[in-house]
C-alpha cells in the first residue's frame, strides 16, 4: 500500500498540482494581454509560446496521471515501463525554462543600460548548455526507454549537470535583478525595512526577480535525493508553469498602457495649470497698464 502511495499517489497529486498551476498561469496570462494589448510583438510572442508549452506540458502530465491511476491501475507490466508522457515532459519544461532564462538575461542587459554584458552572456551560456543536455536526455529516452529506474540511471549522471546549470543560471538572474532593481535603489526607500508594507514589497520584488524558479529547482533536487518515491515528479510537472508565472509577474509589474496614459495626462495638466494662470495674470496686468496710459 505504501508503494502505491509513493508511486501512483504521488503522480496523482503531481497531476492535480499541474492543473492548478496552469490555471493560475492562464489567469495571469489573461491579465497580461488585457493590460498590455499593445506591447512589443517580441514580448507577446514569448508569452504566447510559454503558454502553449505549459498547455502541452499540462496535457501530457494529465495523461500520465490518468493512465497510471485508472487505465493501467493494477497492471504491473505497464507500470514498469517508462511512459511516453514522461519522455514528452523532458521537451516541454526544459524548453520553457530556456526561453524564460533568455528573456531574463535580456532584461538584465536592458536595465543595466546595456553596460553589463558579462552577466547576461553567462546566463545565456548556462541556459543553452542546460537546454542542450535536456534535449540529449530527451533523445536518449526516445530511442532507448525501458523502465523508470534504468532510464534514470542512464541519463542522470549527465542530468546533474543540467540541474546544476539551471540553478546557477537562476542564481545569476536573481542576483542581477535584485542588484539593479533593489540594491542600487536602496537610498530611495522611504519606509523602514521591517514595516509590513516594506516586507510585502520585498516579497513581491523577490518574486519579480525570479526567486520561484530557483526555489523549484532546489526542491527538485531535494525530492529526488530523498526517499519520497515519485514525489519528485511534482517539480517536473509544475516547473514550466513556475517559470512562466515568474515571467508574467515581471511583465505585469509594469504600468498598464491606459494607466500610463492617464497618469501622463494628469501630470501634463498639473504642469500646464500654473503656466496658464501666470499667463492670464500677465495679460490682466498688461490691460490695466494700457487703460491707465490711455486715461
TrEMBL record:
Keywords: Membrane, Transmembrane, Transmembrane helix. The chain crosses the membrane at residues 6-29, 41-66, 86-105, 117-139, 159-181, 202-224. Pfam families: DUF6534. Residues 167-255 form the DUF6534 domain. InterPro entries: DUF6534. It comes from the Eukaryota. This is DUF6534 domain-containing protein. It comes from Lentinula aciculospora.
Amino acid at each position: 500500500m505504501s508503494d502505491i502511495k509513493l508511486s501512483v499517489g504521488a503522480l496523482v497529486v503531481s497531476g492535480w498540482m499541474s492543473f492548478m498551476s496552469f490555471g493560475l498561469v492562464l489567469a495571469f496570462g489573461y491579465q497580461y494581454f488585457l493590460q498590455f494589448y499593445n506591447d512589443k510583438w517580441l514580448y507577446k510572442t514569448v508569452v504566447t509560446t510559454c503558454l502553449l508549452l505549459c498547455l502541452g506540458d499540462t496535457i501530457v502530465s494529465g495523461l500520465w496521471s490518468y493512465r497510471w491511476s485508472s487505465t493501467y491501475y493494477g497492471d504491473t507490466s505497464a507500470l514498469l515501463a517508462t511512459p511516453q508522457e514522461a519522455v514528452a515532459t523532458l521537451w516541454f519544461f526544459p524548453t520553457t525554462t530556456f526561453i524564460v532564462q533568455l528573456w531574463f538575461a535580456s532584461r538584465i542587459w536592458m536595465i543595466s543600460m546595456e553596460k553589463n554584458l558579462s552577466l547576461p552572456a553567462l546566463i545565456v551560456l548556462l541556459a543553452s548548455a542546460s537546454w542542450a543536455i535536456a534535449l540529449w536526455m530527451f533523445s536518449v529516452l526516445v530511442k532507448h526507454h525501458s523502465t523508470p529506474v534504468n532510464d534514470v540511471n542512464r541519463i542522470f549522471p549527465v542530468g546533474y549537470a543540467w540541474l546544476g546549470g539551471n540553478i546557477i543560471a537562476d542564481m545569476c538572474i536573481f542576483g542581477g535583478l535584485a542588484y539593479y532593481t533593489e540594491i542600487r535603489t536602496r537610498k530611495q526607500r522611504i519606509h523602514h525595512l521591517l514595516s509590513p508594507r516594506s516586507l510585502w514589497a520585498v516579497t513581491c520584488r523577490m518574486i519579480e526577480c525570479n526567486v520561484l524558479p530557483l526555489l523549484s529547482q532546489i526542491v527538485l533536487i531535494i525530492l529526488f535525493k530523498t526517499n519520497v518515491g515519485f514525489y519528485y515528479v511534482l517539480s517536473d510537472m509544475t516547473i514550466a508553469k513556475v517559470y512562466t508565472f515568474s515571467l508574467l509577474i515581471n511583465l505585469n509589474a509594469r504600468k498598464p498602457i491606459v494607466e500610463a496614459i492617464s497618469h501622463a495626462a494628469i501630470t501634463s495638466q498639473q504642469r500646464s495649470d500654473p503656466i496658464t494662470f501666470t499667463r492670464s495674470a500677465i495679460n490682466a496686468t498688461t490691460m490695466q497698464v494700457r487703460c491707465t496710459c490711455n486715461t
